[in-house]
Amino acid sequence: MAMTITDGVSPTFSSASTRASNLHFCFWNSTQRLTSVAFDRLTSRKFGIDVKLKATVNPYSYTEEVRPEERKSLTDFLVEAGDFVRSDGGDSGPPRWFSPLECGARAPGSPLLLYLPGIDGTGLGLIRQHKRLGEIFDIWCLHFPVKDRTPARDLVKLIEKTVRSEHYHFPNRPIYIVGESIGASLALDVAASNPDIDLVLILANPVTRFNNFMLQPLLGLLEILPDEVPSLITENFRFNQEMFETMLNETDAVQMGRGLLGDFFATSSNLPTLIRIFPKDTLLWKLQLLKSASASANSQMDTVNAQTLILLSGRDQWLMNKEDIERLRGALPRCEVRELEHNGQFLFLEDGVDLVTIIKRAYYYRRGKSLDYISDYILPTPFEFKEYEESQRLLTAVTSPVFLSTLNNGAVVRSLAGIPSEGPVLYVGNHMLLGIELHAIAVHFLKERNILLRGLAHPLMFTKKFGSKLPDMQLYDLFRIIGAVPVSGMNFYKLLRSKAHVALYPGGVREALHRKGEEYKLFWPEHSEFVRIASKFGAKIIPYGAVGEDDLCEMVLDYDDQMKIPFLKNLIEEITQDSVNLRNDEEGELGKQDLHVPGIVPKIPGRFYVYFGKPIETEGREKELNNKEKAHEVYLQVKSEVERCMNYLKIKREGDPYRNILPRSLYYLSHGFSSQIPTFDLRNH
């Protein structure tokens, strides 16, 4: 791996970083649509699509062909670590920063990301993440030479020097610090000493207190281990390498628990490299360094003010325990914890772990002092969209959604042909139970029209207080990766200003968590400002209706029933108090925004139907619609159109021969699972 090392505050770069003649890249334009471009060949290696691309092709239509981007492996890490250690000065000298040359194609204004390594000290722990991280960050990695014995306090000073220099030059940008084990402790120490600098910490398996039950025997064993043992192993290994490789080929690491033992077998062919990285005295020093760094970070925890994302491996937690993490979560004021239950100790080197995707799902990427949900949002890659689509595949297969739209001449068609290509466009509709229509609509807009629909969502999907009984933030990852935005007047304004396609649900929580017998009943406020704001940007307003929940499930325990059960009543009141009430100014039913989970039982599945009406123009009417009475007339028109769309669907679905899942299944069997199932006749609209 080509890189340039420096002892100074910042790394230097070589001209090799400009090598981009055959790169395939993607960029995002103002209408929030992904455009594919390739030099040298019109083949998308980045997205894994073996088809020729044109600039007009929708990359989200090829989800069946999409594969994850090829990345380096754990073996690559060990090979390059070995080359790094053997290179001139690689195993001696002071700690220093380097910037991988493969990270040179970042976007303008990208924040700095400092990587602080784990116990290996090579600084190559993000090697599988470099390419994607390098598109949105300026990456510097810290390297601890094998023979280095710099104490924890001096390492913190080195990192602080870099942090303060970057903050001086770019005071309005955040500085990201990604740390593993030792690096995580050092990152917390730096944050504690610099509470006034805008830091974002991403800590993988942080250790703030040692598991002495595991540590003390290990230290004792290393102390008595003869110095000659590593060299004997290396020499003997030359004769047994074939045996190790045979064991690797014949052993299923997955069946071995995919843990530390499996990782050892996976890296056994590089055992000499491991021994070179971890000679006895170095390993002893690293463990002592980890102990002192974690003790220092632990003593200053109450002064840390940084935004923090903690990533926990679900397996191999031999240096820490979950009680320590809960204590850490409680001590840090802006902290979110995510558990990757199927991954082990080498988190960033394992398959299925994409740090950029994790950051995007958590909404932890920002370029300024605060998160801008519009300008800081990064579109899903085709593979991220494929993962999203696959998570909804069962619901889509069961409900076979029918999408209708209205052309300019008033004709209703079974497609999204009536949807304008250019924004701003505001889609105003009804919520079905639990908002189950949202995912199907978002998927269809991207697949058919390459349009990202930014949905205005309840704030509970974006923030959670420590100790709250609200659902874990990871439950809403899919909403965030697909572009959901916390509902607020400012976010609504900025979305329309950016010419986005925006989904708005005036009925909110009350409509999504309706009671028995309230299917397809609108709970809209008496007055709303969305018409006047839309007119400021000349946005088209498209009313739409969605039906089908009554064909999917039946409600048996609604809000009124649950409030009669004491422990459920107390739970509802507690979680509602922890959330934001968006309708404090409303009285009666509209003001009842209590959060709860309705009790439902499934039915033999029917079908979902979504009908987009004819756009209502606001362009050129800003002065007219600035009048509250005129704007209210349009508001009532939109509401009436939504009700008309729902009534149309409820009537027309009675004539759909494939409304029930049984005839749809037979149709699939006879025509193939990729075929579009017919629906009711649209000619008698």
Automatic annotation (TrEMBL):
One of its GO terms (biological process) is triglyceride biosynthetic process. It holds the Pfam family DAGAT. Keywords: Acyltransferase, Transferase. The keyword Membrane does not apply. InterPro entries: AB_hydrolase_1, DAGAT. One of its GO terms (molecular function) is diacylglycerol O-acyltransferase activity. It comes from the Eukaryota. GO terms for cellular component: membrane. Residues 150-352 form the AB hydrolase-1 domain. Belongs to the diacylglycerol acyltransferase family. This is Diacylglycerol acyltransferase. It comes from Arabidopsis thaliana x Arabidopsis arenosa.
